[in-house]
C-alpha cells in the first residue's frame, strides 16, 4: 500500500449523516495529509453545499428516497436508483478507492454496493441505536461496522462491530468565550438561555410548542430563547413572531456556529437525532428531547430512551409539545439540582476521539487489503 490512501465517503441527506462524514474525513487527513478523499452524495441534498464548504470534493448521484406510501414518485425512484448505480460504479472505477465508507443516507446504498462488487473493502458508520434496512443489508459485506450504541449485535455480525461512538465536529469541544457567543446571537448576558434545535432541518412540532408558549416566555424576563426552527419554517415563524414583539426570543433558520450556541445554552430542547445526542453527551448539557416519530423504525425514541431510562435526559412526546415543552424547559432551568444531575448523567454517554478511532479502523483495513 502506498502512503497515499484513497477513500470514498458516501451518504448524507441531513446533518446527522454529513457532519460525522466530514469529521471522519478531517481525522483521516490529520493522520495522513496525503490521503485523497472523495465524497459521494445525493444531488440537491444538504451535503452538496456543506461538503465543499468543508473543503472536500463531492460527486452527486440522482438518487432519491423511497416513499412508504403508494405514490407515482416510486416509479421515478427505481429509474433514479438504476442511474445512481451506474454512476456509482463509474465513480468507484475511476477513483479506485482503497476503502469506501458509508455514513447512511440515500447515496450510501449504491456506492457501497458498487464498491463491494468491485472488491473494494467497505466500512459502515451507524449513528443510531436502531439501524435502517439499507445499513443492515450493507453490513453483510462490510469489513467493519462502527457503532455508537451498545447491543448492536442484534443487527450486525458481532465480530465486525467496533464501538467508536459518533464523530463530533472538533470545534464543538473547544473552549469558547461566552462574550463571543452572546455577541454572535445578540443575546443578553444577564439572562439564562434555552437553546432550541429541531435537528438539522428544523422540527414542526417543536416549533408549534414554542409558538403556543410565547406568552409564558415573555413573562420570564430572566430567560431568553435561541430558537433554530429550520429553513423551511423560518419565513412563516419570523412573521408570526414579529406580531408578538418579544425581545427575549432569537429565531434562526439554521445555526452554523453550534459551538457558540451550545456554549451559551443553560438548557437544550432538541430532537433526538443521534448526532445531537452525542454532542449533548460530550458537552454535558441538560436536555429536553422530543423524538421525531417520522423516522425509520422510530429510532429517535430508541436513541432518547437509552438516556431517559438512566435519568440523563427528559422526554416530551411529539404530540405533547404544545402543553409541555416550554413548561418542562422552564422548570428544568429553575431546578438547579435536577439540571446538575442531568448534566452529570449524560456525560456518561460521551465518547471521545470517535472520528480518529474510525480513521484508524479504515487505515487498518486499507493495509490488510494491500
Ligand atoms: C429527520 C431525520 O431523518 N433525522 C435523522 C438525521 O438527523 P439530523 O440530521 O436532523 O440530526 P442529528 O441530530 O443526528 O445531527 C444534526 C447535526 O446538525 C447540527 N446542526 C443542527 C442544527 C443547526 O442549526 N445547526 C447544526 O449544525 C447538529 O449540531 C448536529 O451535528 O440523522 C440522524 C443520524 O443518523 C438520525 O438520528 C435522525 O433521526
Automatic annotation (TrEMBL):
UDP-N-acetyl-alpha-D-glucosamine binds at residues 14-16, 128, 169, 200, 255, 300. It is a peripheral membrane protein. One of its GO terms (molecular function) is undecaprenyldiphospho-muramoylpentapeptide beta-N-acetylglucosaminyltransferase activity. Its EC number is 2.4.1.227. This is UDP-N-acetylglucosamine--N-acetylmuramyl-(pentapeptide) pyrophosphoryl-undecaprenol N-acetylglucosamine transferase. Pfam families: Glyco_tran_28_C (PF04101), Glyco_transf_28 (PF03033). Cell wall formation. Catalyzes the transfer of a GlcNAc subunit on undecaprenyl-pyrophosphoryl-MurNAc-pentapeptide (lipid intermediate I) to form undecaprenyl-pyrophosphoryl-MurNAc-(pentapeptide)GlcNAc (lipid intermediate II). Residues 7-146 form the Glycosyltransferase family 28 N-terminal domain. GO terms for cellular component: plasma membrane. Belongs to the glycosyltransferase 28 family. MurG subfamily. It is found in: Cell membrane. PANTHER family: GLYCOSYLTRANSFERASE, UDP-N-ACETYLGLUCOSAMINE--N-ACETYLMURAMYL-(PENTAPEPTIDE) PYROPHOSPHORYL-UNDECAPRENOL N-ACETYLGLUCOSAMINE TRANSFERASE 1. Gene3D superfamilies: Glycogen Phosphorylase B. InterPro entries: GlcNAc_MurG, Glyco_trans_28_C, GlycoTrans_28_N. The lineage of its organism: Bacteria, Pseudomonadati, Bacteroidota, Bacteroidia, Marinilabiliales. It comes from the Bacteria. Pathway: Cell wall biogenesis; peptidoglycan biosynthesis. Keywords: Cell cycle, Cell division, Cell membrane, Cell shape, Cell wall biogenesis/degradation, Glycosyltransferase, Membrane, Peptidoglycan synthesis, Transferase. One of its GO terms (biological process) is peptidoglycan biosynthetic process. Residues 193-355 form the Glycosyl transferase family 28 C-terminal domain.
Amino acid at each position: 500500500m502506498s502512503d497515499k490512501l484513497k477513500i470514498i465517503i458516501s451518504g448524507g441527506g441531513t446533518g446527522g449523516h454529513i457532519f460525522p462524514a466530514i469529521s471522519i474525513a478531517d481525522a483521516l487527513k490529520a493522520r495522513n495529509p496525503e490521503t485523497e478523499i472523495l465524497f459521494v452524495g445525493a444531488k440537491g441534498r444538504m451535503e452538496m453545499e456543506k461538503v465543499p464548504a468543508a473543503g472536500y470534493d463531492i460527486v452527486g448521484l440522482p438518487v432519491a428516497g423511497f416513499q412508504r406510501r403508494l405514490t407515482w414518485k416510486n416509479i421515478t425512484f427505481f429509474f433514479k436508483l438504476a442511474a445512481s448505480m451506474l454512476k456509482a460504479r463509474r465513480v468507484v472505477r475511476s477513483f479506485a478507492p482503497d476503502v469506501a465508507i458509508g455514513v447512511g443516507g440515500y447515496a450510501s446504498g449504491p456506492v457501497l454496493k458498487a464498491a463491494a462488487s468491485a472488491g473494494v473493502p467497505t466500512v459502515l458508520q451507524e449513528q443510531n441505536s436502531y439501524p435502517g434496512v439499507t445499513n443492515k443489508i450493507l453490513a453483510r459485506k462490510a469489513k467493519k461496522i462502527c457503532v455508537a450504541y451498545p447491543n448492536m449485535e442484534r443487527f450486525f455480525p458481532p465480530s465486525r462491530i467496533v464501538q467508536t461512538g459518533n464523530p463530533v465536529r472538533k470545534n464543538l469541544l473547544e473552549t469558547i468565550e461566552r462574550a463571543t457567543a452572546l455577541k454572535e446571537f445578540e443575546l443578553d448576558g444577564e439572562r439564562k438561555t434555552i437553546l432550541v434545535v429541531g435537528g438539522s432541518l428544523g422540527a414542526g412540532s417543536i416549533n408549534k410548542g414554542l409558538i403556543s408558549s410565547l406568552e409564558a416566555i415573555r413573562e420570564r424576563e430572566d430567560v431568553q430563547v435561541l430558537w433554530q426552527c429550520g429553513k423551511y419554517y423560518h419565513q412563516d415563524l419570523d412573521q408570526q413572531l414579529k406580531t408578538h414583539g418579544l425581545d427575549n426570543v432569537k429565531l434562526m433558520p439554521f445555526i452554523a456556529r453550534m459551538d457558540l450556541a451550545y456554549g451559551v445554552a443553560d438548557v437544550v430542547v432538541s430532537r433526538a437525532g443521534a448526532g445531537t445526542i452525542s454532542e449533548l453527551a460530550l458537552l454535558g448539557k441538560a436536555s429536553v428531547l422530543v423524538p421525531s416519530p417520522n423516522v425509520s423504525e422510530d429510532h429517535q425514541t430508541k436513541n432518547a430512551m437509552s438516556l431517559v431510562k438512566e435519568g440523563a435526559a427528559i422526554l416530551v412526546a411529539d404530540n405533547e409539545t404544545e402543553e409541555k415543552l416550554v413548561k418542562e424547559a422552564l422548570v428544568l432551568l429553575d431546578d438547579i439540582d435536577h439540571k446538575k444531575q442531568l448534566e452529570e448523567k449524560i456525560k456518561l454517554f460521551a465518547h471521545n476521539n470517535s472520528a480518529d478511532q474510525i480513521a484508524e479502523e479504515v487505515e487498518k483495513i486499507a493495509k490488510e487489503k494491500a
